[in-house]
Design brief:
174 residues; alpha+beta; four-stranded antiparallel β-sheet; three-stranded antiparallel β-sheet; 6 helices; 38% helix; globular
């Protein structure tokens, strides 16, 4: 099985290279899709991720910071940044959020990495995961997140499943 590799780009920046598919069912398509959707939603918490020119791997910009696991960071039960990431995970179908793929950069901003394992989770499954793992009281999107979701809903997103989940979030919190 191939493993992620740290590489240095021509401009001196670093990134993580992963195979486009793996034995565990993770896909580079999901990684790239998560980045592109985060960009569309103006979330800003997913590092730039694109396919390599040959399409056999993905490259994700390296985040200078620590994972929640490394830092031992804890969250308040009403942490809005964490709640917004939970909403994003629901939209992209990510059921694999844990302390090793949730980071904070040097400025303390939460960064979500590793979006390759996706499925079709219910909103309740994601909310339960965040309540159990991070003691988050409720999963409610911030007013800014709701506004961005409403703006995106006005355009048809290439990813039908994500578009449907955006609509579910907007209906739930109207």
């Amino acid at each position: 099985a191939s493993v992620p590799m740290l590489e240095t780009y021509a401009d001196g920046s670093k990134g993580i290279r992963k195979p486009a598919t793996s034995e565990g069912g993770q896909t580079g398509t999901a990684e790239v899709r998560a980045y592109r959707l985060s960009k569309l939603l103006k979330v800003g918490n997913v590092p730039e991720t694109e396919f390599t020119k040959d399409g056999k791997a993905t490259r994700q910009r390296f985040v200078h910071g620590k994972t929640v696991l490394e830092s031992g960071r804890t969250f308040k039960p009403d942490d809005q940044d964490l709640s917004d990431i939970a909403i994003f995970d629901f939209i992209i179908g990510n059921t694999d959020r844990h302390d090793a793929n949730l980071m904070h950069d040097k400025a303390g901003r939460l960064i979500a990495v590793d979006h390759g394992m996706v499925g079709k989770p219910s909103f309740e499954k994601i909310a339960t995961l965040y309540r159990n793992r991070y003691q988050l009281k409720t999963v409610n999107p911030s007013p800014t997140a709701l506004k961005r979701l409403a703006q995106v809903r006005e355009h048809q997103v290439d990813d039908q499943a994500a578009w449907e989940r955006i609509n579910q979030v907007l209906e739930r919190y109207k």
